[in-house]
Q: What sequence folds into this?
């Protein structure tokens, strides 16, 4: 008879009640737990609150990779990340990146110009809401040489979820104050923070609210059909808006659109 791992982890979860540890200790505990179950190349943990700049809680990257996976990501590309948008939904669970990605994500300009640089074969994340506003995402990453997570490994991750959630909720329960402190350093208020850098891009470029909504979804990797379903408009209307935006911005490709978007972030 095999071990009932799901039952075991459910019993262990309430035991995560010691003194609150710092970020490095919590992240290391998570990494060590995962390493007893399967192999992976990287760990990264982000906390998200609305559209504010995410807080990097822990990672295992070297200095060079940290620039790509953390520093550059926090500068703006997080707004196009499927895991970021999933975190904003506040739904707990374990997800593969491909489960959360829009229908054209893997052919989007964001994927080709940013995500491909990571050299990842797959990313899997634990999504742990700790309040109505804040979700912590703990990612396990595998490079192409390591390969994707097997169905059996993914099933095991689902079984360990109660323990991971308990670990996060106990040790990272007070992240709201850290988001407030980060905002205070920038001189921005919570009210203003609900309007992310991306909103400023569209205002700066004189796009209408509808045009901005459509172009954001294009950059995230949605097809015209998917955008139409999300916004409740026809595919033809979506295409007309896209043509109008391209003409208004003086561009002819998604490559130019992404470049313009990233260049104008924060203005």
A:
């Amino acid at each position: 008879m095999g071990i009932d791992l799901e039952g075991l982890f459910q019993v262990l979860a309430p035991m995560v009640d010691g003194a609150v540890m710092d970020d490095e200790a919590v992240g290391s505990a998570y990494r060590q737990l995962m390493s007893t179950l399967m192999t992976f190349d990287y760990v990264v943990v982000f906390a998200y609150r609305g559209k504010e700049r995410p807080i990097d809680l822990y990672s295992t990257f070297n200095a060079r990779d940290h620039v790509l996976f953390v520093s550059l990501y926090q500068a703006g590309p997080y707004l196009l990340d499927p895991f970021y948008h999933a975190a904003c939904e506040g739904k707990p669970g374990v997800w593969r990146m491909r489960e959360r990605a829009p229908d054209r994500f893997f052919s989007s300009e964001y994927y080709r110009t940013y995500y491909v640089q990571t050299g990842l074969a797959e990313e899997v994340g634990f999504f742990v809401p700790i309040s109505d506003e804040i979700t912590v995402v703990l990612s396990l990453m595998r490079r192409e040489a390591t390969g994707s997570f097997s169905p059996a490994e993914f099933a095991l991750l689902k079984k360990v979820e109660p323990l991971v959630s308990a670990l996060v909720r106990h040790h990272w329960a007070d992240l709201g104050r850290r988001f407030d402190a980060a905002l205070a350093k920038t001189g921005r208020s919570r009210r203003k923070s609900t309007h992310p850098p991306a909103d400023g891009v569209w205002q700066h470029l004189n796009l209408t609210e509808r045009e901005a909504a459509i172009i954001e979804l294009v950059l995230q990797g949605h097809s015209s059909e998917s955008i139409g379903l999300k916004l409740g408009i026809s595919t033809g209307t979506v295409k007309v808006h896209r043509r109008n935006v391209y003409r208004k911005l003086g561009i002819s490709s998604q490559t130019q659109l992404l470049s313009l978007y990233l260049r104008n972030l924060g203005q």
